Amino acid sequence: MDRKTELELLDRCLSLYNERKTELMEGEVVSPVDRYISSERFNLEMEHIFKTSPLIVAHSAELAEANSYIAREWLEGFPLLITRDTDGMVHAFANVCKHRGGKLAREGKGCSRRLVCPYHAWSYDLEGKLKTIPHEKSGFPSFDKENTRLKELACTEAYGFIWVQREEGSGLNIEAYLDGMDTDLTRFTEPEHVLFDEAVQDWNMNWKILVEGGIESYHFKIAHRETIAPLFNDNLSVFDEFGPHFRSILTKSSLKQLRDTEQENWDIREHANILYSLFPLTSVLVQPDHFAIINAIPLAADKTRISIQTFVPKGTDVTEKARHHWQANFAFTKDTLIEDFVIGEQIQQGIASGANESFTFGRFEAALARFHDITEAKLRNV
Ligand code: FES
Ligand SMILES: [Fe+2]
């Protein structure tokens, strides 16, 4: 985000605050609930959105060292292996041995020049090349070891994130995908950060309920009354679109101080949280001195695996006192998000009950209407 945009956004929010207004869409929007529960619809989303979009699978800081890797279950249970090779290049592979399909790396993170299959010890380097086969000469005299590699997926590192696409497309062009959001986002996320802590949990809710919770502030005062409500203005946020992505400015109670502050001293991170919602399902929450990533994997129409990660500026987590500070911060962010997820599970139950055929988005819930427009358009264009 450049300085001009920062000032314009703050000015826009302060004007709304002064006039006691909220940005409104034309009228309410009705959204059918079938979108959250149909497994047929879920399969379409999987095929035509998730498997054909570049998805953020990690922040670069999570895979900082050469010869490091991350293994995890991904879309439709795909065993994903992300590596940074000896030369620093990132790759994404199926975590599946070429011999008889053993899982090479255990779920989690590690550092090693070689991955050795736990079944019969075939070994691979982090470029995915098969390096050794025990008893090769006697057992596999005609096997083409030299040309055997792990199955590789399209993967690139851009703007401080690692992106993977499940199905081959025309290559990964992240600049085009971000549609103008790139430098806006990287001002906050690219400087050197480290992952401080993370939590992963499965929630019985559709992935779209998760996205919706991030792009309106109508619920802050009510749903978050035990956590962040006192820190934020009631229902005062603005959003902008970058292709299918959103940037939401969630204003804090301190915004009013700008009335008495010279513009040159305005700092958006002091008076608002910035939430980047990267389509389809990754959110980057920029807080005053650090950021969090809320990422997810849709498991079924009514089940989503959600991770919450807190990244802090490198070197700020070395003393006991500092660690305490970040730990409290992580816990607070997590507790706030859990308030959303608990409600999300209840909403999913409510949908399953058949009590509602549709939901109604109010005029200040315009981002929700746009999010559904964008999702519908992706499904129609197939
Ligand atoms: S399955 Fe991996 S070495 Fe046999
Ligand atoms: Fe929330």
SSE blueprint:
Elements: H1 3-19, E1 29-32, H2 39-50, E2 55-59, E3 68-73, E4 79-84, E5 90-94, E6 108-111, E7 114-116, E8 123-125, E9 130-132, H3 136-139, E10 152-158, E11 161-165, H4 174-178, H5 182-189, E12 193-203, H6 207-214, H7 220-223, E13 232-242, E14 245-252, H8 268-271, E15 272-278, E16 282-286, E17 291-300, E18 303-313, H9 320-352, E19 358-361, H10 366-380
Antiparallel strand pairs: 1-19, 2-11, 3-4, 3-6, 4-5, 5-10, 7-8, 8-9, 10-11, 12-18, 13-14, 14-15, 15-16, 16-17, 17-18
FE2/S2 (inorganic) cluster (FES) binds at residues 97, 99-102, 117, 119-122.
List keywords for this structure.
single chain; 382 residues; alpha+beta; Rieske Iron-sulfur Protein; 2 domains; 19 strands; 31% strand; globular; binds FE2/S2 (inorganic) cluster; binds fe (ii) ion
Strand order of the largest sheet: 2-11-10-5-4-3-6
Q: Please give the share of residues in helix.
A: 25-40%
CATH class of the largest domain: Alpha Beta
Number of strands: 19
CATH homolog superfamily of the largest domain: Naphthalene 1,2-dioxygenase Alpha Subunit, Chain A, domain 1
Strand content: 25-35%
Overall form: globular
